[in-house]
Amino acid sequence: MKYNSRNEIILVARKLPDCENLGIGYLLASLQSAGFQGDMEILNDLRDMNRICKRILIERPYLVGLSLPDGGSSFFALALGEFLRRKGYMGHITAGGGFATLARNWLLERYNWLDSVVRFAGEVPLVMLARSLKSKPEENLRNIECIPGITTRNGDGPPAPVMDNTQIKIIPRHSDLPDILKYKVAHISATRGCPARCAYCGPAALRKLEWQEAKSAGFSVSEIRCAGVGGVRRREISNLCDEMELLYHKKGVRYFYFVDEHLLPFKESEALDYIAKWKNELRRRGISKIGIGCMLRANFLTPKIVKAFQEAGLVRCFLGLELASPDEFKKFYRKGDVEQALQMIKLLEDLGVATICNLMLVHPYSTIETIQNGIELLGRIER
After folding, report:
1. What are the C-alpha distances in Å from 336 to residues 142, 169, 301, 341?
2. 150, 218, 325, 352: which has the highest count of C-beta atoms within 10 A?
3. For 247-267, how does the pLDDT look when each residue is reduced to its tens digit (9 = 90+)?
4. Which domain does 59 fall in, by range?
5. Residue 145 sits in the same domain as residue 183
6. Which of these, 283, 286, 132, 165, lies nearest to 231 by C-alpha position?
């Protein structure tokens, strides 16, 4: 089959208002650095379906990737895959994301139009898949089954390259940056992973499987831990500031929203050192008068950390509160201290940081008493 598109690969994903799809930005940057031409199509609802299908049928990329980050947002992407096949698209369709990884065998069994699934982080496997499809199309299936991190109907194939730290060195592609209050906004990431194993968190299940994948590749426990598998992998401050410098000076970004679970080191001394080095590096690059937004875990914060971070530019914080009692924290394998969280919320607000928090008021273990406790806890947040 001949293809007439300069875009060899099209990745389809959801993009919410005033947001970027940072995961797709990383994949496109990886493909570009390997010499491939790729683009993103936004699929938010059924009204986007005909437009995307028409473009793919006209341009005929040899690879279409569907983002399946979670079950709830996967309906339209799966419908698109079915639609493409019925309309005559003959190229390779793969899927990736957290939900795709966890449900890969179910997806391949249920949807006969789906050719493969990319397990875990896709930066390395997707490039290898694209290279295999382009070089020897007549041997596609046999080649694909030998790619680490690719699952087909014949099974998982070689272990995914979960020990590879390429992903945290890549600067993602940023396009169509949103505006908030007339300021350009960029989504950005300083880390990959999280050491917590909260029972309500999908990525926690992925991290357990990621560890198993590394073991099946023959790595020792010490090697796996050293590589950060199943834990936190942190970008070098210089690499992070390279991205911020590009966004600040070239694209006019003034508000940086970090998508990390908790972007700072966990110990107070390490967090303070990190903030100081980060602040100095930004100043050296001529980056000033910026706003930083992020998520933070209350149990890793102290007054010194909060004050230092606010002075470095923190203006908005999504603070994890989650649950209202020690018993609820225990049931979900979550560490937390309600009183400490309330103290941090008050300190952040006193410093002028817009603070948002969430509480799982209703969950599988809820009782009338836990719901009442949760409501009373919310009442203690004065502002």
Report:
1. 49, 32, 11, 8
2. 150
3. 999 999 999 999 999 999 999
4. 9-151
5. no
6. 165
